[in-house]
Specification:
The chain has 464 residues and is mainly β. It has 3 helices and 28 strands. The protein has helices at 23-29, 32-43, 302-308; strands at 60-63, 73-76, 80-84, 101-108, 114-120, 140-148, 153-164, 167-172, 177-182, 197-201, 219-224, 231-235, 243-247, 257-264, 282-289, 317-323, 326-331, 341-346, 351-357, 367-372, 378-382, 389-393, 399-405, 408-409, 422-423, 429-434, 441-446, 451-456. The strands form 6 sheets. The chain has a 9-stranded antiparallel beta sheet. It starts with 22 loop residues before the first helix and ends in an 8-residue tail after the last strand.
């Protein structure tokens, strides 16, 4: 297909224009209000169940994709979308789009266009799909995209990094790069170590050299404190640690730094487990240094090194973001019911609490990625729900479905696409990210068959 194909009917069409909000204002609005309200609601005596329709945006209806004409998603009335970058679509650089779309971030360019960096959580050793490549045999990596928000049109895409394995999530930096995380610690057939973080600019190729000082473990997500430049990292494992990386040089992460692991202070200095802690559990915190972050096979992995020094352990830490001068992290399977926890960490006070622990799968079922709109709305991508939804969270703590995956590729396939026919409605959502200035567009991926969606509509009518 032509990578610069026009997609009629999907320009913003003047949806309720308002003055631009900044990423900083997103932080000022984000997270605390809705999540605090959710914790208060679930702590009360009255049972709380997940709404079947948004109190803001209304019920979900089948909506046709402006690019293919297929009804791939259900959305509230007034919202529209276009798909792009299907697995196998030829990118601007002539490379077929790799599969397994995952974490993603959006950046506003000086010309007003939106740059996206997208992960591809591919395992195996079928060969790198582009240059530069860390390990030429490995099949994972990242791709970059450019989107015109005024015309509702994707303009170009290219491979930006490959030779990695299972690029799951990551996070944006304040200086305009994407940190792509390998969610594995496997060794390549030639002995190449995987399990690192790589840095990819939004406007050019990435660096194929891993940031080894950030540690070798099953990386999931990162969030950067814009005031200090410290990078906070989550680990998708059990037991896992919460880490912070203190770089030697600001905005030069590859120049080296110190990896530390969070300690929850205990009377005897022993390692504390957060596994079963419920809403409003509070902690005093400190940090210990990991002496051997880039551990070799047969050596002790960072989480075990930290625990031996009294660092705290978590269950499957996944999503992370920065807002309100605080860090928010998600434990996908922690809490009293095993349905997930959201932690709030204040680095200025060295204090942390469980902001919310899900009381039941009907309220929140194993949260994974979370993102925040420039208006302060929270988007939750569940990893385990019945039906694959993107959920929103209202300011008074109610969870509602915003989008439902109903991707079914008909028997004859889709013209111009190489995706096999089949029912992909069980595919997880990944990489939700808003256009950072106005929030007029939400970008999100369906991991299988591998599709990126750009969604727009009357956002200010509701909580997102």
């Amino acid at each position: 297909m032509n990578d610069d194909t026009t997609t009629p009917g999907t320009a913003r069409r003047g949806f309720l224009k308002r003055g631009a909000a900044t990423a900083a204002s997103a932080a000022a609005l984000a997270a605390l209000g809705p999540l605090d309200a959710l914790g208060a609601r679930t702590a009360g005596a009255a049972p709380l169940t997940k709404r079947l329709a948004s109190p803001d945006y209304g019920p979900l209806y089948p909506v046709k994709d402006e690019a293919t004409g297929l009804e791939l998603l259900r959305l509230p009335k007034g919202f529209e979308y276009l798909s792009y970058g299907w697995t196998g679509d030829v990118m601007t650089d002539g490379t077929p789009t790799p599969s397994a779309h995952d974490g993603m971030a959006a950046f506003r360019r000086r010309d007003g266009r939106i740059a996206l960096v997208r992960n591809h959580e591919r395992g195996g050793y079928g060969g790198a799909f582009t240059e530069p490549a860390y390990n030429p045999a490995a099949a994972g990596g990242t791709t970059n995209l450019v989107f015109d928000p005024e015309r509702g049109k994707f303009l170009e895409s290219w491979g930006s990094l490959s030779g990695t394995i299972r690029n799951c999530a990551g996070g944006p930096t304040p200086w305009g790069t994407w940190l792509s995380c390998e969610e594995t610690t496997e060794l390549g057939p030639d002995g190449t170590r995987h399990g690192y973080v790589f840095e990819v600019p939004y406007d050019r190729k990435g660096d194929p050299e891993p940031i080894r000082a950030m540690g070798r473990f099953s990386h999931e997500a990162v969030a950067v404190d814009p005031q200090t430049g410290y990078v906070y990292l989550t680990e998708d494992a059990t037991p896992s640690g919460l880490y912070r990386y203190i770089p030697h040089r600001s905005e030069r992460l590859a120049a080296g730094g110190e990896l530390q692991m969070l300690v929850v202070e205990t009377p005897d200095g022993s390692s504390y487990s957060t596994y079963g802690d419920g809403t409003d559990t509070e902690y005093r915190t400190s940090w210990v240094t990991i002496a051997n972050p880039d551990y070799a096979p047969g050596e002790t992995r960072p989480a075990e090194q930290g625990a031996a020094l009294g660092a705290a352990v978590f269950k499957r830490l996944e999503g992370a973001w920065w807002g309100n001068e605080r860090l928010y992290i998600v434990s996908t399977s922690g809490g009293p019911t095993g349905q997930g926890q959201v932690f709030e960490y204040d680095p200025r006070r060295e204090w942390m609490r469980v902001l919310f622990a899900s009381p039941d799968a009907s309220v929140l079922n194993n949260p994974d990625n979370i993102c925040v709109s420039p208006r302060g709305g929270i988007v939750l991508c569940e990893d385990g729900s019945e039906g694959e939804y993107v959920h929103g969270l209202t300011t008074d703590g109610e969870i509602f479905p915003f989008a439902l995956n109903q991707i079914v590729i008909p028997a004859g396939g889709v013209p111009g696409k190489s995706v096999a026919p089949g029912n992909y409605s069980g595919s997880e959502w990944c990489g939700s990210t808003f256009e950072p200035r106005t929030g007029d567009w939400l970008f999100v991926n369906a991991q299988s068959p591998g599709i990126t969606f750009a969604i727009t509509g009357p956002w200010r009518r509701g909580s997102l």
